[in-house]
Amino acid sequence: MRRLFLILAAVLLLSSGASAAVCPDIIIPKPVGYEVFEGEYILKGDGSDIRVHSADRNFLRELKALSLKDFAYNEAYRLIVGKRGVDIYCTGDVGEYRARQSLSYMASFSDTLSFCSIVDYPRFAHRGIMLDISRNFRDKDFILRQIDVLDMLKMNSLHLHLADDAGWRVEISSYPRLTGYAAWRKGKEWTEWRSSGKHYAEQGSPEATGGFLTKEEVAEIVSYARKKNINIIPEIEMPGHSAELLAAYPEVACLSADGKEKVFSSDVCPGNEETFRILEGILDEIIEMFPSTYIHIGGDEASKSSWKECPLCRKRMEEEHLDGVDGLQSYLVHRIEDYLESKGRHLLGWDEIMQGGLAPSATVMSWRGTANGIEAAAMGHDVIMSPNTYCYIDYYQDAPLYSPLAIGGYIPLTRIYSYDPLEGVPEEHFDHILGVQANLWTEFVPTEEHVEYMLYPRTFAVAEIGWTPQTEREFTSFRGRSVRLVEQLKDKGYHPFDLANEYGDRPESYVKVDHLARGCEVKYSKPYSRTYSADGETALTDGKQGGWAYSKSDWQGFNGDMDVTIDLGKVQPLHYVGAWFYSCYTNWITFPERTEVWVSEDGENFTLASTVTCQIKEGRESGTMYSLFGAPVDVTARYVRMLAVLGTQPQHGFVFTDEIVVK
Ligand code: ACM
Ligand code: ZN
């Protein structure tokens, strides 16, 4: 009877959710150092068992020995859990805050803690996320909810992309058309807006969808974040990605060559003084709303096309002795930097702000890989690393076939976690690398649930990259902690990606295929793209098939049709020739309309052995797909020529393939 009672009690305990004592090995980001001791302590829950000791001499001595930089020193803490409760040692408020975060992180899993001691401080000063609320608007409450997660992860920066072609998202009193018109559009989702002609709408009109943050809402976001030691960086795009600004205030548009008409591109006119008056007026209000030292001015992907013809731009280039349109962009960035510096703020911009000469105190956000960031650091500029090769979380995080539509690419948790912001940076420039950020562009992310799905768990990786020493990071442990945090976020009503059921990379990419053409020489009648060369001449017969990501070494790209011939070395019977192709409309990669296989015994006289026609009708928004173009043949040959013909496919551009398999 007693045994039965004990079993029943154990079952009740388990089913009531009581869990074993937790220790620091559950925390994301993983603390710098910790020890776990024999014994457990149950938190009282009212805080009366937490004692804070500022400026403890032993702790200060220990920190001094570590030669921490100022930011790390300020955030450093020691946390001890013992039989009398919790003791926190710190250098100031932020350190105490970080200690309490570690405590509440553990307590969110169980109020029973193992006796333990933690010493902790961050690796980088900047640990952030960029959220694009222009392409699909997200409101104040949603942003506050995401700040709660960033907080739990000890992150300290939320960069809001507030302005882009698809909508202006923040109240500017002096320019009411920005929110009375440019914040509203026909087409609720970005994809609808784009495919229906990119029209804006008057606020309150029946077709208007969108929105913006009012000044009161911004104040609430900024103050909520500040209490959690999170800085909100506002981004106002210029000179490109500004079609909505031109629509609301055509004064900032370029003129046609004859000076008679406005040109509505996405770029503002740096030749016109009115452009600077309006931009500075907008920045005045941004500065008033956001206490951030950094004001992000975008700077990416300006087409600069209207500048070549515009008489005002031409005049400016001549008078200021500027080196073409890049010089003109640099002129704008320099002027805006001077303006921000005069207000005690610093300019932050995407790495294109380096084109034509970087403004003297600008900080660069490196997104087109890492090379620009490394170069800027070598020039003495501060840099935040957010390379699209690791930190673009608008890319797929799992098999495209089983995922909601994304912009393309493939950055699973393991890939983002593998990033080290100091990789490739010479040691003497380490201090210029302020930290790391992941960017969530939302062209293909229309709902709140979908934003959370893209953010989590990949944001956990950014937190740990930014906080934990490189030598202490290890993916298997991180993944286990991430699965647990994903479950907790789900319990709290968030919609993270279900990491526990991750499909993983393309199965074909894990095993080499053996076939008759493996290792054989390939002749290219049309060259492969130098940018997407994979492993060069051997890529198509090396037995390696690609993963979900085309930018990796395994997929070879052709700018137009592919035409290659493989020499099998000897005449032999052949039964099958085929190759996988990759398609991603948003990246201008398409399936060929057909593949043709031609064979020859002498390398001169070829006969057609098979034709495979594409069976997939690509929609404009079809996402990423993979398709096998393969067919049986019944021939004897030494040479196999494969042609991939784009023909009338809707989106001309690249074809990508990974291996030509001959059996
Ligand atoms: C960017 O992704 N265009 C900064
Ligand atoms: Zn112009």
Rg, Å, rounded: 28 Å
Distance between the termini: 70 Å
Number of strands: 26
| Overall tally of structural domains | 3
In the CATH classification, which architecture of the largest domain applies? Answer: Alpha-Beta Barrel
Read across the widest sheet, the strand sequence of neighbours is 6-7-12-15-16-17-18-19
Summed up:
The protein is an alpha/beta fold and 663 residues long.
Summarize this structure as a short list of keywords or feature phrases.
26% strand, Jelly Rolls, alpha/beta, 8-stranded parallel barrel, binds acetamide, Chitobiase, domain 2, 663 residues, TIM Barrel, single chain, 7-stranded antiparallel sheet, binds zinc ion
Explain this structure to me?
It is a single chain. With 663 residues, the chain is of the alpha/beta class. It folds into 3 domains: 2-120, Chitobiase, domain 2 (2-Layer Sandwich), CATH 3.30.379; 126-450, Glycosidases (TIM Barrel, Alpha-Beta Barrel), CATH 3.20.20; 509-662, Sandwich (Jelly Rolls). The chain is 28% helix and 26% strand. It is built from 18 helices and 26 strands. The strands form 6 sheets. The chain has an 8-stranded parallel β-barrel, surrounded by 6 helices. Strands 20, 21, 22, 23, 24, 25 and 26 form a 7-stranded antiparallel β-sheet that branches. It has a 5-stranded mixed β-sheet with strand order 1-5-3-4-2, with helices on one face. α10 (273-289) crosses α13 (324-342). The chain is globular, with a radius of gyration of 28 Å. Residues 1-18 have low confidence and may be disordered. Bound molecules: acetamide and zinc ion.
